[in-house]
Design goal:
single chain; mainly alpha; two-stranded parallel sheet; 20 helices; 1% strand; globular; disordered N terminus
């Protein structure tokens, strides 16, 4: 199969002759691959405005609809379970139909479903619409990863996925900031949390479609020899079979690899810690546990330190996995998870002022979220570039199954104890479990 024909999509019937491809110098190709990475980053920078705003709506939903924290934790879990199922499906579809179209479709569909969610009148409508939104959201991450894998080689995956994960971390910052503006600055009702921030995601998705190209072949170019020589050497017979490869064959090839399972379980605990923080830290700062500590600054603005730390941690972890550990991904994962447990225990046990609370919360986000860069670089490392979407979707399925299972438990724990600070003790335990499982990856 020629490079031009391998566009990452499955087609049937006769093809027209592909247009002549333009050979590029290394400098021009580098500009193009950065353009594709930045386009994916720009799009995903807005994606979390479609799903990480729920924690800010919880107090208003409780007051308006009379739902308990346990029920709302269950609804949050439904989104995560739906997202997990969608990852398993949509990662494979990104390999089949291309990440560019899938990512844009996810942004548009999620925007519509967020608006529908804002008109919910009870637990049933809220559960159904928020769950459907989880599936729409799942079209984003593996699709962008598919495009990045097509343009960036294995020696630079820690770097490229570090930047991509940094964009996801900054998306959390944007979700926190826009939600805080809606409820704290503009004093709008909880419904507007689902209506205003997501308009940014709509713009990002449409922009990505017009700026990005699936791979060098679709962009009409040929990578320079220095790039192609550094790529994985696929078996010729395997490459020839890829054109007719079925979805079942891709799933089978990915799921029979034990490293995928180790990676999935390790990120499952890590993502449980991450979403425990993202969903329940705003509840903590709005509750009595933080108010007892005093402070003259709005508690919701203090909570923004968490996603800022997450964004910086993701960028840092991706860089050090390539530069300090020679693309050995398990070591930075283990290191960051241990430090994440330490920082989370400090948030739980130490008496913190406003200033030290901001610093420790920043470091908690830094270490808890940072390893995601290494996890996502592991997917094409383990499964190969041609099944990067399927592998990413499978691993992300693990991540959100674990996180979704924990959400009702966390909400029930807070209902029964009234102690919202227990979230930090729970997060520390998850970080420790992730570090232990990561010992088995050895990649």
């Amino acid at each position: 199969m020629s490079h031009a024909e391998n566009t990452g999509t499955d087609t049937k019937g006769p093809r027209t002759a592909p247009p002549a491809l333009e050979p590029l110098s290394e400098g021009k190709y580098n500009k193009l691959k950065w353009r594709m990475l930045l386009a994916a980053m720009f799009c995903y920078f807005f994606f979390y405005t479609g799903r990480q705003t729920f924690g800010f709506a919880i107090p208003g939903i409780q007051a308006d609809l009379g739902l308990s924290k346990a029920t709302l934790g269950g609804i949050s879990g439904i989104l995560l379970w739906s997202y997990a199922a969608g990852q398993m499906i949509n990662g494979n579809l990104a390999d089949k139909f291309g990440g560019r179209r899938m990512m844009t479709a996810g942004a548009i569909l999620s925007t519509v479903l967020n608006w529908c969610t804002s008109f919910s009148v009870g637990s049933r409508s809220l559960s159904f619409l928020w769950g459907a939104n989880g599936f729409a959201q799942s079209l984003g991450w593996p699709s962008g990863g598919r495009v990045i894998s097509n343009w960036w080689g294995p020696r630079e995956r820690g770097r490229s996925f570090g930047f991509y994960t940094f964009a996801a971390g900054m998306a959390s910052v944007l979700a926190f900031v826009t939600s805080t503006i809606v409820v704290d600055t503009l004093k709008l009702d909880w419904q507007w949390i689902f209506r205003v921030p997501v308009l940014l995601m709509l713009v990002g998705g449409i922009t990505f479609y017009f700026v990005a190209r699936e791979n060098p072949g679709q962009a009409g170019v040929v990578p320079p020899a220095s790039v192609t020589e550094a790529e994985e050497e696929d078996d010729p017979a395997d490459a020839a079979a890829f054109a007719g490869e079925s979805s079942f064959q891709r799933y089978k090839a990915v799921l029979r690899n034990p490293k995928i399972w180790s990676t999935g379980i390790a990120i499952g605990f890590q993502n449980t810690a991450r979403y425990g923080l993202l969903i329940w830290v705003p509840v903590y700062f709005l509750g009595e546990n933080w108010k007892k500590g005093g402070g003259g600054i709005s508690p919701l603005w203090i909570s923004v330190a968490l996603p800022v730390g997450m964004a910086v941690g993701a960028l840092t972890n991706g860089q050090i996995s390539d530069r300090l550990f020679g693309a050995r991904r398990d070591r930075p994962i283990i290191l960051f998870m241990i430090m994440g447990a330490v920082m989370s225990l400090t948030m739980y046990a130490a008496p913190l002022s406003v200033t030290t609370g901001i610093v420790v919360l920043f470091l908690t986000g830094f270490f808890v979220y940072g390893p995601q860069s290494s996890f996502w670089a592991l997917c094409p490392d383990i499964a190969g570039k041609r099944m990067a979407g399927t592998a990413t979707g499978a691993v992300n399925c693990f991540a959100y199954l674990f996180a979704g299972t924990a959400e009702p438990f966390i909400g029930g724990l807070m209902d029964s104890t009234g102690n919202t600070s227990l979230i930090f003790l729970f997060v520390a335990g998850c970080c420790g479990c992730s570090a232990l499982v990561a010992l088995t990856i050895r990649r």
